[in-house]
Amino acid sequence: MEAANLSVATAGVALALGPETCSSSPRPSGILSSTPGGAVLQGREPSFSVFTVLVVTLLVLLIAATFLWNLLVLVTILRVRAFHRVPHNLVASTAVSDVLVAALVMPLSLVSELSAGRRWLLGRTLCHVWISFDVLCCTASIWNVAAIALDRYWTITRHLQYTLRTRRRASALMIALTWGLSALIALAPLLFGWGEVYDARLQRCQVSQEPSYAVFSTCGAFYLPLGVVLFVYWKIYKAAKFRFGRRRRAVLPLQATAQVKEAPDEAEMVFTAHCRATMAFQASGDSWREQKEKRAAMMVGILIGVFVLCWIPFFLTELISPLCACSLPPIWKSIFLWLGYSNSFFNPLIYTAFNKNYNNAFKSLFNKQR
């Protein structure tokens, strides 16, 4: 009887205090919350570690630096009249695509990364807009790199036939094809129903995982321009090596012949001096052109190397994952994606570092602002 009375009393105290006070169990993995009906729910506190804050800060700085640096290149090209020609229009096209990547694509990607479970909480319409601009701008940036490589190749190997008029037409055609092909790849899922980019049930927004579209988009956006730039740089290397070797073989015997005898007569001395001055002028001109072509070849090589390192991990996973119905852990997908985005930051650094005209234009632009 006493035990029964004790149990009844304990139950009464529990009802009076409510369910929260009766729960004294430890809660290491979450917090408890109660609904108006008295149900107890378990949730997690939003936790941001120091590492997470550091990574987010670095990504925000990357976005800002990519936007500002490419915007500076665009402003310089627009304000300096000497840049209103080839190949600066190709550089401007690249800067436009990279500015759009930094302004429209990377911020929304960061928002998606910060959401719980990388869910897309901004609706179907904004998902379609984001994915379309993502594919459009990144593809255009990649093809612009290929266009710059082609322009350098024709300048080095066909500098007599590749006149300024021809160069203008070729660059305008390459820019039009770059943006046209990029728009086709980006809008194909919307225009032709080629897979779905938004999953309302899972709240997921990603590029269409239809296997046929994965092959089409990755080949058109990366593997085809990759083949172009690798072939072009191989041809640039061969042409530059052949021309530089031929120049050395042509100049060195002339210099040795000119120094064999001393002219006894004044007329011969004048003739010898004139020949030596002519050869010196020709050698200096060839040396200047040789240095310019070497610098252009080095710029294209570094541009291609950075482009390959930044994008090849992402496009390998984009091609393999839909075909084998397998997927990487989300953290690796994010790393590969942002590594690809970083190519838009490196592009203006590379093609301005090898062109002193840009550095001088930057200085004059800042001096005018002061």
TrEMBL record:
Source superkingdom: Eukaryota
BP-aspect Gene Ontology terms: adenylate cyclase-activating adrenergic receptor signaling pathway; adenylate cyclase-inhibiting serotonin receptor signaling pathway; positive regulation of MAPK cascade
Localization in the cell: Cell membrane
Gene3D superfamilies recorded: Rhodopsin 7-helix transmembrane proteins
Transmembrane parts of this sequence: 48-78, 90-110, 130-150, 171-192, 212-234, 296-315, 335-354
GO cellular component: plasma membrane
Ranges for domain G-protein coupled receptors family 1 profile: 69-351
Keywords: Cell membrane, Disulfide bond, G-protein coupled receptor, Glycoprotein, Membrane, Receptor, Transducer, Transmembrane, Transmembrane helix
Keyword set includes Transmembrane helix: yes
Broad class of where this protein is predominantly found: membrane
Single GO MF annotation: Gi/o-coupled serotonin receptor activity
Entry's family note: Belongs to the G-protein coupled receptor 1 family.
PANTHER family in the cross-refs: 5-HYDROXYTRYPTAMINE RECEPTOR 5A (PTHR24248:SF202), ADRENERGIC RECEPTOR-RELATED G-PROTEIN COUPLED RECEPTOR (PTHR24248)
Official protein name in the record: 5-hydroxytryptamine receptor 5B
Organism per entry: Sapajus apella (Brown-capped capuchin)
Biological classification of the source: Eukaryota, Metazoa, Chordata, Craniata, Vertebrata
